Predict the structure.
Amino acid sequence: MALFQTVETPNLKYEQPVGLYINGEWVKGVEGKTFETINPHNEKPIVAVHEATEKDVDIAVAAARKALETTWKKVTPSDRGRMLTRLADLFERDIDILASIESLDNGKAFSMAKIDIVNAAGCLRYYGGWADKIHGQTIDTDDDSLNYTRHEPVGVCGQIIPWNFPLLMWSWKIGPAIATGNTVVLKLAEQTPLSGLYAAKLAHEAGFPPGVINIISGFGKVAGAAIASHMDIDKVAFTGSTLVGRSILQAAAKSNLKKVTLELGGKSPNIVFNDADIDNAISWVNFGIYFNHGQCCCAGSRILVQEGIYDEFLKRFKERTLANKVGDPFGKDTFQGPQVSQLQFDRIMGYIEEGKKAGATVVTGGERLGDTGYYIKPTIFADVKEDMKIVQEEIFGPVCVIQKFKTEEEAIKIGNSTTYGLASAVHTSNLNTAIRVSNALKAGTVWVNNYNLIHYQTPFGGYKESGLGRELGSYALENYTQIKTVRIWLGDALFA
Ligand code: NAI
Ligand code: MG
């Protein structure tokens, strides 16, 4: 099979790389395997891509190691920054192609995909700006010593990304790793390999030396597991399910104790108080759960509403939910497209059936939309009990539960009652309530009077079982550097 294929989306035609991008070249997998990626709108294959197995991971890691210790080391921090900035420019130049690929392969609405690309470019440029501002300290202990620290790259980084924000996750991983002087082997999600491969082509054009950025397609249990247990990978960054996150941590412990950062699932509470601006709150709650078809780790999937406004809120939130346009990702005004895959569709429908069986009330939705494509009607469950699966487990689809609370204490208690702690939100017009509740929520992010507003300058990550470490902002740089202390003795020999 060729290494490039012409692909047509509903709005353009382009050359899609389908090989593995290793050591600055497009290659086939050693075992010659390929797999198809599916268009979730019509359930038809788009194109086949080459599959990486363990041997390809080995080759990519060797290339990344060699680049780290030869060419990449000699590139100045300023030039690393310049390359990342150039890459950001190329994302912007090709925004229509990149957004089209995302919509075709992932199913997300084209207008939303464009916002992903803007943010991915912003993230790359932001970390480009950091590249020449990474430095240690000099530490004065006494007259006879000169002490300083160096913030050195961790080394070869394995990065494993999911399918819900393919290019955004690509930029969140590549940006901080490259800015700090590491080299990378990044595995794309098997459901959505196309945009990340195209981005590899842009990285090539941006001028990174061979082996610095290696991008491969492959399956989690094969290529992903090979990265997690590799003896020559110094750090692994993973975004995906909590189940796989645990296995990554175990593989790291059993192999070479590589550093691990994890960005995992969530079941985030979105809390609306009686005194909230109800129109704004409804808009944000709607966006909080249905954005990206509910396929967000930080989705506001548990909606807690204070009793004084509960009935009005539910009535109007149902109307707002019904107004969301669900359909073809390339359709005009589409807000919600299909779920990414048959498997995810089945998982979500399973939760919906589970909720019905457990006795929760379906306020709206609760079934598939149409009979082709992985479309699910936006779904609200009311009259739920705390111990129901739909209240405790991540559904990762356009499905939320709504619960009534009386007091602030009760809202905080329910808000903190799952094993997750990724995100949360508070809607209120009282500043004191906002601050008290924000302080009390056990979550890596608290949004006040908004939802899902992630910015690459501000850190993102989880409390509890939602993850380890932080991505984005200056905080992410800590995951990709290690500190070396140098102590120079200026005095006479001691203990002579
Ligand atoms: P997953 O965790 O299996 O996949 C995410 C990435 O991990 C993919 O690149 C996959 O190839 C890789 N992977 C899978 N098994 C692996 C292994 N044993 N070793 C190394 N890498 C491995 O997630 P999946 O099956 O796509 O979705 C299942 C659930 O995970 C979703 O319903 C959702 O609840 C959660 N999820 C959370 C995401 C987030 O943004 N935090 C993103 C995607 C899924
Ligand atoms: Mg696909």
